[in-house]
Amino acid sequence: MSTADARLALLRDWLTDDLHWPLVRLEPASADASFRRYFRAWHRDGETRVVMDAPPGKEDIRPYLKVTQLLERCGVHVPHIDAVDEARGFLLLEDLGGTHLLARLKAGGDVDALYGAALDALASIQLAPPALSAELPPYDRAVLEREMQLLPEWFCARHLQLTADPVRDALLARTMDFLVREVLAQPRVLVHRDYHSRNLMVLEPGGIGVLDFQDALAGPLAYDLVSLLKDCYIAWPRDRVEGWVASYREKIRDSGLVDGVSDTQFLRWFDIVGLQRHLKVLGIFARLWYRDGKSGYLADLPLTLEYVRDTAHRYPELREFAAWVDAVLVPGLPAANSREAQRIAVQTGS
Prior knowledge:
By secondary structure, the chain is α+β, with helices and mostly antiparallel strands. The chain has helices at residues 3-18, 62-73, 101-106, 111-126, 130-133, 141-148, 150-159, 166-184, 223-229, 238-251, 263-290, 301-312, 319-348, and strands spanning 23-30, 37-43, 48-53, 81-85, 90-94, 188-191, 200-202, 208-210, 217-220. The chain has a five-stranded antiparallel sheet with strand order 1-2-3-5-4, covered by helices on one side. A two-stranded antiparallel ribbon has the order 6-9. A two-stranded antiparallel sheet has the order 7-8.
């Protein structure tokens, strides 16, 4: 029996023997970019729950438990926890349904209403008392730099197969230092860190449910906003994005977070922290393939790189970096993706 099958059997025993939960059916509920797995469990009365399997040694559920409490105190709808087995890494959770924001957007839902609900939920998080975010570790220089180092390691060296280049390394070091200084100048709030359309559930009869928040930190105000509005899985015209950014700034205007901050400055915060995020994501998506064998994220690299290219061209401090992106990354990605697509086809026989 494989390790995964053994854990599934253990999970079934936990539900039926330990919790005396009358399980009728158990099916995979969603994929995840980590080692966590989620299953939908059917009760004999027809009700459903979601069960998280977080293998100890690979996943720690304690941050999830802590951030759940913090977000509930913010008034945000997160899955209620019905039962926990911390030693074995199992959680029995409220089922928020199967309709995430991305699916509803692609199905032709009311875009402004859907984003309005997502922005309302975000405001509830960010306008919470500062004492809540103070309970989390800081999104500091060390974390920001560590995240961006995924770009040269996994995207540049591994995916694009770029060789060592001291000039390039110096340029990246200067660019990353600039980004960190800019990002750390923003007001600090509770940051979800992955507040995008696949982690937001459209609830019935209305509202937004929030998932996948266990990596939350206390960090820059505009980070979650850019995760939502410069989503790596769906893109919108720049003028529409700027309209949402301006409306969000107005939504939090009376909080004190943006006192003395102009529309231009707020948009700069949004763009600059977005560049930091997207450099990290390029590395993460490449790592998910080369380290974890998850090829689906390769298709999301072009949009992520386009966000990088677009932002780099908007700010004069990034002119040299923008030229390198145009000369090296943009032409290199199609060939790299094509090479890996051929390799995947050979492996799968498709």
